[in-house]
Write a structure and sequence with these properties.
Elements (H helix, E strand, L loop, with lengths): L1 H12 L4 E12 L2 E6 L4 E5 L14 E5 L7 E7 L2 E2 L8 H12 L3 E9 L5 E7 L2 E2 H7 L4 E2 L7 H13 L12 H7 L7 H7 L26 H7 L31
Parallel strand pairs: 5-8
Antiparallel strand pairs: 1-2, 1-7, 2-5, 3-4, 6-10, 7-8, 8-9
Helix pairs in contact: 3-4
Length: 261
């Protein structure tokens, strides 16, 4: 029974585990890049089995991908185990520049671990065998942010950078980016809304909250359309706060005039 449970756990973990090749097309900040996956080169094949043209020869040849079904796809990759300064934070621009020097326009290998709630791939980036995640920490361009801060490799690299006063460690008291985001929510997309809703950092805006029931369309709620037309605030009676109106007689009931006294 134990081996069967272990097999199921392994399969569940490997659902998101994958290693693939891609090309970095943009660096968003010190720990996030955009990559183009499926960048297979096109090779020229001559028509009718003739000799391969020396030039581009697109008019007289077929441009076919080397592998079928390899459509290119743009993906956002968040580097795992590190947290770089935000762009508006001290050393934010330097951190982004450092990552661009390492990976911009380069062919890379991505060791994917998971996909987060923002549809970003969480993984490790390699350029010619170099672990870019670790290199950012070693340069002092990112903080170690491993799981429960227990990865000894990242902790040692951060200690080395701090001792050598590299990058952000040249500051007297550098502020961790996760703390800076709480103090400057306006500079981080979605952060102000996250704080208003009380969602912890790194979690989705709806994770752990009681799901809200969507309100039905006014046409499906008795009296709702009329309430909206009259401008009556929600939760009040249709006549609350308005001038009382005389009740209308039934269409089959004759209208009676008040008698003079």
């Amino acid at each position: 029974m134990k081996w069967w449970f272990g097999l199921l756990c392994g399969l569940a973990f490997n659902v998101q585990a994958e290693t693939f090749d891609a090309k970095v097309i943009a660096v968003l900040d010190g720990d996030t890049v955009l990559v183009l996956r499926g960048t297979h080169k096109l090779k020229v094949r001559p028509r009718d089995g003739g000799a391969e043209p020396s030039g581009a020869g697109e008019a007289a040849s077929h441009l076919l991908p080397q592998s079928a079904g390899s459509a290119s796809k743009v993906l956002k990759v968040r580097l795992a185990d590190i947290d770089a300064p935000e762009k508006a934070q001290p050393y934010g621009k330097q951190s982004r520049r450092s990552l661009c020097e390492l990976a911009c326009k380069r062919e890379v290998q991505i060791e994917q671990r998971a996909v987060d709630q923002y549809k970003r791939i969480i993984g490790t980036l390699y350029v010619a065998g170099l672990n870019v995640n670790q290199e950012q920490v070693r340069r002092g361009m990112a903080w170690e942010y491993s799981y429960y801060h227990r990865d000894r490799t990242y902790l040692d690299l951060q200690s080395e950078a701090r001792t050598a006063q590299r990058g952000l460690w040249q500051q007297n008291a550098p502020e961790p980016p996760w703390q800076w985001r709480k103090e400057h929510p306006r500079h981080v997309p979605g952060e102000a809304s996250r704080l208003r809703e009380g969602v912890p950092d790194g979690r989705s805006r709806t994770s752990g909250l009681r799901p809200t029931v969507s309100r039905p369309h006014p046409r499906h709620v008795p009296g709702e359309a009329s309430r909206l037309r009259e401008g009556v605030p929600d939760g009040r009676s249709r006549t609350s706060g308005l001038r009382p109106t005389a009740s209308r007689p039934h269409p089959w009931q004759p209208k009676t005039e008040p008698t003079a006294q």
